[in-house]
Amino acid sequence: MSESFRPVIGTLGYVFSPSQKEVLLIHRNSRQGDPHLGKYNGLGGKVERNEDIVVGMCREIFEESGLICKKMSLAGTISWPGFGTGGEDWFGFIFRIFEVDGTLIKASKEGSLEWVPVEKVLSLPHWEGDRFFLPKVLDPQSPTFHGVLPYQNGRPVSWHCSHGGPSLPFEAPGQKTD
After folding, report:
1. HSE on the CB side for 73, CA within 13 Å?
2. Which of 29, 50, 118, 172 counts the highest number of beta carbons within 10 A?
3. Which residues are 9's β-sheet partners?
4. How far apart are CA 155 and CA 90, in angstroms?
5. pLDDT of residue 175
6. pLDDT at 177 over 80
7. Percent of the chain topping pLDDT 90
8. Residue 173 lies in a domain
9. Is residue 51 part of a domain?
10. Is residue 106 in a domain?
């Protein structure tokens, strides 16, 4: 019998500018000891108990940027066995956010926020395995994907991906900002 899979459930969101030529990234440059220190990433984090995945994504975007999600689509999912700092497994839901409201903050407790031209994203420091899925996320016309990206000792060891249907935008649920 195989070992049970009980991953940390997380979200990762990429907010696109209205022209879709730039994407909002966080430069993880604030906390010493952060395993993401120095890397660029989308916004996101762990889903909380009693929270659905979309609400969790919207909450994380608001907490990290001050922005309220209005229109978004599911880009895909990724299973990251062994990704966590202690080797724990993660399962992530990756979103494209096309429309937001609110005022962007300059930085969060995680790091500074930067609008980056889409064509420059892959040239920035990020997790080594991001190169497998970021091209799919950064192309709004790309179909949904469902990948497995195992990590060992902080490095990806393989990548497998299946594709689904079109990634259709939907209206984000109303959000409490109190």
Report:
1. 18
2. 172
3. 91
4. 14
5. 65
6. no
7. 73
8. no
9. yes
10. yes
CATH number for the domain that contains residue 27: 3.90.79.10
Torsion angle of alpha carbons 123, 128, 132, 136, nearest 10°?
-50
- Give the structural domain span for 68: 8-166
What are 155-168's pLDDT values in tens digits?
Answer: 999 999 999 888 88
**Any domain includes 133:** yes
The Cα–Cα gap between 99 and 39 comes to 25
Nearest to 114 by CA among 19, 13, 12, 26: 26
Question: Tell me: the pLDDT tens digits for 106-150?
Answer: 888 888 999 999 999 999 999 899 999 999 999 999 999 999 999
How high is the pLDDT of residue 1? 53
Cβ distance 91 to 79 under 8 Å? yes
What's the number of domains the chain is made of?
A: 1
